[in-house]
UniProtKB/TrEMBL annotation:
<protein>
    <submittedName>
        <fullName>RNA polymerase sigma-70 factor, sigma-E family</fullName>
    </submittedName>
</protein>
<dbReference type="InterPro" id="IPR013324">
    <property type="entry name" value="RNA_pol_sigma_r3/r4-like"/>
</dbReference>
<dbReference type="GO" id="GO:0006352">
    <property type="term" value="P:DNA-templated transcription initiation"/>
</dbReference>
<feature type="domain" description="RNA polymerase sigma factor 70 region 4 type 2">
    <location>
        <begin position="105"/>
        <end position="157"/>
    </location>
</feature>
<dbReference type="InterPro" id="IPR014284">
    <property type="entry name" value="RNA_pol_sigma-70_dom"/>
</dbReference>
<dbReference type="InterPro" id="IPR039425">
    <property type="entry name" value="RNA_pol_sigma-70-like"/>
</dbReference>
<dbReference type="Pfam" id="PF04542">
    <property type="entry name" value="Sigma70_r2"/>
</dbReference>
<dbReference type="GO" id="GO:0016987">
    <property type="term" value="F:sigma factor activity"/>
</dbReference>
<keyword id="KW-0731">Sigma factor</keyword>
<dbReference type="InterPro" id="IPR013325">
    <property type="entry name" value="RNA_pol_sigma_r2"/>
</dbReference>
<keyword id="KW-0804">Transcription</keyword>
<dbReference type="InterPro" id="IPR007627">
    <property type="entry name" value="RNA_pol_sigma70_r2"/>
</dbReference>
<keyword id="KW-0238">DNA-binding</keyword>
<dbReference type="GO" id="GO:0003677">
    <property type="term" value="F:DNA binding"/>
</dbReference>
<dbReference type="InterPro" id="IPR013249">
    <property type="entry name" value="RNA_pol_sigma70_r4_t2"/>
</dbReference>
<dbReference type="InterPro" id="IPR036388">
    <property type="entry name" value="WH-like_DNA-bd_sf"/>
</dbReference>
<keyword id="KW-0805">Transcription regulation</keyword>
Amino acid sequence: MTNASSPWDGEFSRFFVERAQNLRATAYMLCGDWHRAEDITQAALTKLYVVWPKLAKHDALVSYARKVVIRTFLAENRRLWRRRERLTHDLPEQVAHEGETEQRMLVRAALSRVPPRQRAVLVLRYWEDLSVEQTAAVLGCSNGTVKSQTARGLAALRRALAQSEAAVPDGGEHCVRR
């Protein structure tokens, strides 16, 4: 059996090594689950590999790859909302990663309760630090939609945090640091 490789394999492999971790971190911020983030990232990178030879603007690969991750996440949520298991009030135990504070965990949990499209906007604007215009380009929507989804997403995040604070005895301020 011969090992057939395409002429762009080396170029794609370099891109993969350089960007896969950042794309996975973005996917994690969207879904809140490292395993699911890995699945989203792999699906997005597979889609990117298929169209790699057709990509004319290799200088815009990072933003295009981010767009594919976001759209893969949103498409998955549209498909899965009917099949997803029913949530309960009892949360499973979560392993805290070294250096992860309780506040950060509360923000991530609250972010998971924000609707997917609004969550995508919040992650792009505040985690990826994209402008309104850049976020609109990634999501394929207008600047006004990004602004309204940002406002609604922040309101939903604040409500979720308020519910979390009510459940935590000491309350406290919440922040996320990269």
